[in-house]
Design a protein that fits this description.
About 55% of the residues lie in helices and about 0% in strands. The protein contains 21 helices and no strands. The N terminus and C terminus are likely disordered.
């Protein structure tokens, strides 16, 4: 049990420092945690609206929300959406009971609102949970967790894209949440299990039919500081939507352990708007030289002849070690390029080169290449190569004279 406690407590103590990376690279990417739209009172509720104003208690607002009144939602929004710079006040025991009543009303009244209102319902539910992060939190803080999860799950299943995105936005805001009080191990376990449920929702968003929602799910996972749990978003580099692929690059730009240079290089020649420029900017920010960037453009070029020329350049250069570039090219989609890379690697005695030859002997899709690789690396046929981060090796940098 102590070992399990230590592992799951990372959900509570981890620091979220990457939530802002969805706008990395200056590409004008939308902020998934932008301002919530103002609620417009629903038509046909004039008598109800007249009974609610700024002096209304939370209990009255909750009754209005349960009935689907727009003004009730607007008043709740006014209370909860204070500027981020204003510290939240601690929730008293009495206030906690009122907030729980409001959450119940949000659950019951949710489907009575239009999509515009449902976006605000899930947003405000998340902000209620955030209130409990102020110290000291009341003893019944855990009572707000399940209602939020239910609203988030409902939101992610909503027919409206905007509601699904709003649900993911609120999940991303709560990765680093913890109640404003000390917790015993059982409570830590409870919060960890709750966040694992939110993770399940975020992963579900990666499979959404709408690219905007998949992009929001990528941003949500990128805000999660635990690499193992955030890593499923990296698979969306193969998403059919340029919007989603660009979100992965931007959101994980500073997370080298998850998004290495080898994964970024192919996007240098991606024709989708903003993709090549973003990939180039990330690689420059990571310290690649002009020489390395030139090679990166060649090895990812859509024209086979250009990629073949990169092999010749690597073989001729003496100021860099081209082993890792050759390994990259040995995975090329063209059999001709892979065969030329194999020939170059066969003359290389580096362990990385020998391991890659063994891997090609076992896994290359071409019979001819498998046989050729087996001839030059027959004793290592069962070894599996693991390609190091391509430009991350000091060997790829120009050597000083």
């Amino acid at each position: 049990m102590p070992e399990r406690f230590d592992t799951r407590s990372k959900w509570i103590t981890g620091s979220v420092g990457l939530a802002g990376l969805i706008a990395a690279g200056g590409i004008g990417w939308k902020s998934w945690n932008g301002p919530t739209r103002q609620v417009v009172p629903a038509a046909g509720t004039a008598s109800a609206v007249a009974s609610l104003d700024d002096s209304s208690e939370l209990g009255q607002i909750a009754e209005g929300i349960q009935k689907g009144e727009g003004m009730a939602l607007a008043l709740l929004q006014k209370q909860l959406l204070s500027p981020e710079s204003v510290p939240a006040a601690a929730v008293s025991t009495e206030r906690s009971i009122a907030w729980q009543t409001v959450l119940t009303s949000l659950l019951k009244g949710n489907q009575k609102y239009t999509a515009y209102g449902r976006i605000n319902v899930v947003t405000l539910a998340g902000r209620i949970v955030e209130q409990y992060g102020a110290d000291p939190a009341p003893a019944d803080w855990s009572a707000v967790l399940v209602p939020f999860s239910e609203l988030a799950a409902t939101g992610l299943a909503d027919s409206d894209v905007g509601v699904r995105i709003a649900a993911l936005q609120q999940v991303s805001r709560l990765w680093n949440w913890a109640p404003g009080r000390d917790m015993h191990p059982g409570q830590v376990e409870h919060v960890a299990a709750w966040k694992e449920g939110l993770l399940s929702l975020a992963n579900r968003g990666l499979k959404d039919s709408a690219p905007q929602v998949r992009a929001a799910a990528v941003a949500t996972l990128a805000a999660l500081p635990l690499d193992d749990q955030a890593s499923p978003a990296i698979a969306k580099l193969d998403d059919p939507s340029p919007e989603v692929r660009l979100q992965v690059l931007a959101a994980f730009a500073n997370r080298r352990t998850l998004l290495d240079e080898e994964a970024i290089i192919p996007f240098l020649c991606d024709p989708s708007p903003g993709m090549a420029a973003t990939a180039d900017r990330i690689l420059r920010d990571r310290g690649l030289t002009e020489t390395q960037l030139g090679l990166a453009h060649l090895v990812s070029h859509p024209t086979e002849a250009m990629r073949l020329s990169a092999i010749d350049i690597v073989n001729e250069r003496v100021d860099i070690d081209g082993t890792l570039w050759l390994i990259f090219l040995s995975r090329d989609r063209s059999e001709t390029v892979r065969a030329r890379a194999l020939d170059a690697l066969s003359k290389n005695e580096r362990p990385e080169a020998r391991k890659r030859l063994s891997e090609m002997a076992t896994n290359d899709p071409s019979d001819d290449i498998r046989q050729a690789a087996a001839r030059v690396a027959p004793g290592d046929a069962e070894t599996t190569a693991s390609l190091p981060t391509l430009p991350g090796s000091p060997a790829l940098y120009p050597k000083a004279n």
